[in-house]
Amino acid sequence: MSSESKDRVDKSADIKNAAALLLKGGSLLSEPCGKCGGLQVKFKDKTTCVNCGNKQDTIKPKPPEKQYIITPDKLRDFELDLEKAEYIIKNKILILSSDLKDENELEIQKQKVDLIEGYFRILEKIGVLRNTHYS
Hints:
Strand order of the largest sheet: 1-2-3-4
Strand content: 5-15%
C-alpha cells in the first residue's frame, strides 16, 4: 500500500470517527484546530480534529464567583425574613408539642420529637445568623 493510499484510509477513518462522535451527541466546533486549522469535534471532555486527529482535553472554565453586596435595605429585609422564619418555627414547635401531649403511638411520637429537634437546630442557626455582624 502506497503512502498516499494509506493517508486516504487514515483520513477516511478520522472522518468516520468524527461522524460517530457527532452521532453520539458530540458538537462540531467553530474554532479551528490549533495545529492544522482543521475542523474539530467536541465529545464529552475531549476535542478531536477531523483533519489531523489531534486530541485535546476540553478545559471547562470556572464560573465567576458571585459577590453579594449587602446594603442596609437588604440587611434589614434579611433580618425581617429571619424574624418571620423564627416566628413560624416557634409556632410549629408549640403545635407539635401540643399534639405530642395527646399522642399514644410511639412511632408518631418519635417523628414529632425528631421534627421538634430539627426545628430547634434551625432556631440555633437563625440565632447565629442574627448575631453575625455584616460589614
